[in-house]
Amino acid sequence: MAASSPSSSPPRNLATNRRVRRDYEILESLETGIELRGTEVKSVRDGKVSLNESFASVEGRQVFAQNLRIEPYTHGNQFNHDPLRPKRLLLHRAEITRLGSHVAEKGLTLVPLRLYLKRGKVKLELGLARGKHQHDKREDLKRRTADREADRAIRGLE
Known about the structure:
The chain is of the alpha+beta class. It has helices spanning 18-23, 39-45, 93-104, 134-157; strands at 12-16, 24-34, 49-50, 55-59, 62-66, 69-70, 87-90, 108-118, 121-131.
């Protein structure tokens, strides 16, 4: 039996933002690198990260993840980091310009969808999203309930 190479292993999810898909309509998603310091990587690998309430903002020629909480590393002593510091996202200049123009449109925002490891590097999946209205959320709930009931009925016939 051959050993699997690191490049063939699927990305390992470290954190997901489940609430985003309920509150926003995701128009586009893209993979970004994230600039982390010192003990942040160790803390992220331990799963001590939260994407709740986080968003991304375009500031000049850079994109920053705001409110992305990475807990201080337990063995970090004086070299620990600030849990809520803005983290720079690594994108190509053309992508930053394109995202900046989309965010300038009314109602669009950048939200982190998930944080994962890919070939030993921490990556962030960023989504360009439009906020859902309350009636859109109700429609989604009705559709999911109807699908679930249809699946149950089909399984009951078999």
